[in-house]
Amino acid sequence: MEVRIEDSVFSNVTDLLDSLAANLQNEPKYKLIQQVECSKYMIKNQSACSQTVVYKLTTSPVKPFVKELTVATIDNDVQYSLLYRATGDLYDRYLPIGIEMIRSFNVTGTINEGEQEQVPELPPLSNTSDLNAI
């Protein structure tokens, strides 16, 4: 699971996802599995868009196939991108946990330089029976 928060050069989230997918199109065996969809996830209380791709990871010695789900939104010129990535059948096996992590993402404020805030406790998984199945 990867979280990216950065200044955005894009004016809309569709362009952001198209750009992220375009970067992966250089990987062998690249395939778009799920087109951009914008009604399933929320980030910062606003609709986020998602997209799923698969590709062969050439930077690894074993060159596995990787599935990657990206969920993103743009708020006040800041882009939030949450990526769930796994190899082979591990993607489907752990997808419920990845989705729960994405849905639990919350921006609670900012941390000023030199100042540390207490890290809030994470909420429990909504469906712990998914963990027992793994």
Topology:
Blueprint: E1 2-7, H1 13-24, E2 31-43, E3 46-56, E4 65-75, E5 78-87, H2 90-104, H3 129-132
Antiparallel strand pairs: 1-5, 2-3, 3-4, 4-5
Would you write up a description of this structure?
The chain has three helices and five strands; from the N terminus they run βαββββαα. The protein has a five-stranded antiparallel beta sheet, with helices on both faces. The chain has helices at 13-24, 90-104, 129-132, and strands spanning 2-7, 31-43, 46-56, 65-75, 78-87.
In short:
With 134 residues, this protein is an alpha+beta fold. It has one domain: Protein Transport Mog1p, Chain A.
Key words describing this protein structure:
disordered C terminus; five-stranded antiparallel β-sheet; Protein Transport Mog1p, Chain A; alpha+beta; 134 residues
Q: What is the CATH fold-level name?
A: Protein Transport Mog1p, Chain A
| Rg from alpha-carbon coordinates | 16 Å
CATH class: Alpha Beta
Count of helical segments?
Answer: 3
CATH superfamily annotation: Mog1/PsbP, alpha/beta/alpha sandwich
Percent of residues in helices: 10-25%
**Which CATH architecture?**
3-Layer(aba) Sandwich
Major sheet: order of its strands?
1-5-4-3-2
Tally of separate domains: 1
**The biggest beta sheet, please?**
5 strands, antiparallel
What's the average pLDDT? 82
**Weakly predicted, low-confidence segments:** 130-134
Task: Report the end-to-end length measured between terminal Cα atoms.
Answer: 18 Å
Q: Provide the succession of SSEs.
A: EHEEEEHH
